[in-house]
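INFO batch 0412 | record 1 of 1 | parsing
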Amino acid sequence: MSILDGPAPVRRDDVVLPRDDAALERRLSAAEEILGGLARRPAPRDVTIGEAPAADATHPDVVAHRALRRAVFVEEQGLFGTSRSDLDDTDTDPRAVVLLARDGDGTPLGGVRLGPARPGEPDLGWWTGSRLAVSVGGRRRAGVRVGAALVRAAVARAEAAGVLRFEADVQAANGPLFTRLGWETVRPVTLPGAPDLPHLRMRHPMDRIQRLVDATKSPLGELVAGLAPPGFVGDDGAPVPGSDVVAACDAILPAMVERDPEWAGWCGVLVNVNDLAAMGARPVGLLDAVGARDASFAARVLHGLRAAAQAYGVPVLGGHTTIDVPASLAVTALGSTPTPVPAGGGRVGHEVRLTADLAGAWRPGYTGRQFDTTSRRRSEDLRAMVDAIGPDAAHRPAAAKDVSMAGLVGTLGMLAEASGTGAVLDVAAVPRPAGIDVADWFTCFPGFALLTTDEPGAPLPDAGPATGAACGELTDTAGVLLRWPDGETTTAVAGPVTGLGPAGSSSAARRLPSPTTGTERTPS
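INFO prediction complete | emitting tokens
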């Protein structure tokens, strides 16, 4: 019983041997041969891989895959004992899929199955690949390594489904093939259907979160080093020395301003008041700088900005408008608090909490990227969330950070970096809107989401309609790990996020070990 997962270009020659290279051909292992072999000669690239719901027992691809499984695992390898059946709960899970490779004439060559690791339970983005089987003819199919192609196709399909943890229990003889395809060995395992056949649990790195962090924050360390005030490195706002004033500043992506000017104006206010909220400051005023191709376009941007300012109850104090230039928008917000809440106030052992508004939907045109809750909220609800850890809050946390462009996990990495710690996030404990995939929620820009850390048992922030829960802790290992319901952890962010280091000590972060071997400025 061999379980796989993997992305794959479906049409390609992986290896082509000259016909007279007998020595190299003899080095083809039995394990490689059973998973597709090495191509002997160039051939038409007419192998295709199709997808079908694994639970549809009448679909031609599922019928063919189940026949291949029986031929390989039951009849050829003698697995599954007296039951002589390799069917299991994944075969009835409506979320599981079968990938089947066919030759140009429609002949099934091989197939693989993948789906949630725990059929019947909520999908947390933890999937497994399984039941990889290649026909005798497919193992020596010229021009294409069918098994390797199916593994790659399964990885690609898992990535498209937003999977954050992808594993397979692989026959030990096939471990070297998986290793060459980028998989990592977790540990040896014994499977019920094949107790006498050695298997390895293998895992394919899923780097969606790391790629987001690298794209949005990793350049900051070199760009802005030395510009932040001592003690407030990586914060969402900057305390003004000698006063109770906290300033924050954000620019909206020019493409977003051009595409959706009213929404860009709204978000210019939203991101800044959320930054002040994370600093424990009460918003007192806004300044804007708008660039527009003409007056009518500028009016649309300012209309959205004005509407949001009214909804949050924050006055626009002034600004600057330039016409006949490319679209742009930057907003500065001023707040007030005698005791700002730093991002770098966390300590090893602190609980990680998320307080988030879950009542919303994807912004049209930004599915999977912007979760809009604020445009449909009453003003009193918006203000209650912004005041969650403000100057008048009954309890204020040790550290706080507003979830921003780096997503939930990347923002937690920034808080941990500023605190001189690492972090572990319990995937199943994170408050999440119904119907939203874990990977999308962990990487999107939410309407309101506040990460805080505090001593275990301390009160959660009171944020009106927002939902809060403890969902992790700060650790002494740099980076961010995801902890899954089975107790396993996987690396989401390998090492510091921004390179700015902890608040007050630019070198301390380097002393923390990395979880495997992976940038915020004030203001953010």
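INFO post-check: Residues 17 and 23 are 10 Å apart (CA to CA).
INFO record closed
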